[in-house]
Amino acid sequence: MKKWSSDRLLSIVAIIASLGTLFTIVYQTDLIRKQQYASVLPYLEMWNSNTGHRGESYKYILKNNGIGPAFIKDVKIHYEDSVYVGDPASFTFLVIKPKDSIKNYFYSNIKKGTLIPAGEKVELIGVSKDTINAPILKKWFSNQDIVQVEIVYESVYGERWSALGLANEPKKLE
User: Fold this and answer.
1) What per-residue string of b and e applies to 102-130 under the rule 16 or more CB within 10 Å gives b?
2) Deepest in the core among 22, 104, 119, 136, taking most CB within 10 A?
């Protein structure tokens, strides 16, 4: 039986310490990467805003509640069994206006390439001080069984997300 020399024992301890250090470095690198991704995470949410005591104002709002910018990659409207490429303003012009004769609405266009900074709120479409047209828009956009707005966006690191409909949590896309 061979005797363990102090040199051999020290070599084994050095190898074990080196492996432990390597594991620690790999683990810390992974934590730093996760922290960097989280520090620029956009979080888009959509909701209704109803103001006025007689329902005279309505807004469909998009807000980036994250801590990083959102780069818009795609905007679609799901309506009945169809998908319309475009934002709520174009959908209102093409579909709602011919069916319900809506007028006096305001809007903000969003499309591929639009940047929504962290904390930014965008009023996608709305009506102010109009008891006739506000309920029409509310009927269309507040009922998810009728219309759902879908926005696909990316973080600065290229992670893709999809926000679909009102008050739904964004889903990460693979």
Assistant:
1) beebebeebeeebebeeeeebebbbbbeb
2) 136
CA dihedral sign, ordered 27, 33, 39, 43: negative
Contact (Cβ atoms closer than 8 angstroms) between residue 93 and residue 155: no
Enter the tokens of residue 63.
Answer: 């807000």
Q: How many helices (H) and strands (E) does the chain have?
A: 4, 10
Q: pLDDT digit string (tens) for 32-90?
A: 888 877 778 999 999 998 876 777 899 999 999 999 999 999 999 999 889 999 999 99
39: left (phi over 0), alpha (psi -120 to 50) or beta: alpha
The mean pLDDT value of the chain amounts to 91
Q: Are 92 and 107 in contact (CB under 8 A)?
A: yes
Q: 52: how many CB neighbours lie within 10 A of its CB?
A: 14
Comparing 5-14, 51-60, 153-162, the range with the smallest average pLDDT is 51-60
- Please report the pLDDT score of residue 1 as a whole number: 58
Query: What is the percent of the chain with per-residue pLDDT over 70, rounded to a whole number?
Result: 98
Nearest residue to 70 via CA among 157, 168, 166: 157
Give the containing element (helix H, strand E) for 166. none
φ/ψ of residue 51, rounded to 5: -130, 165
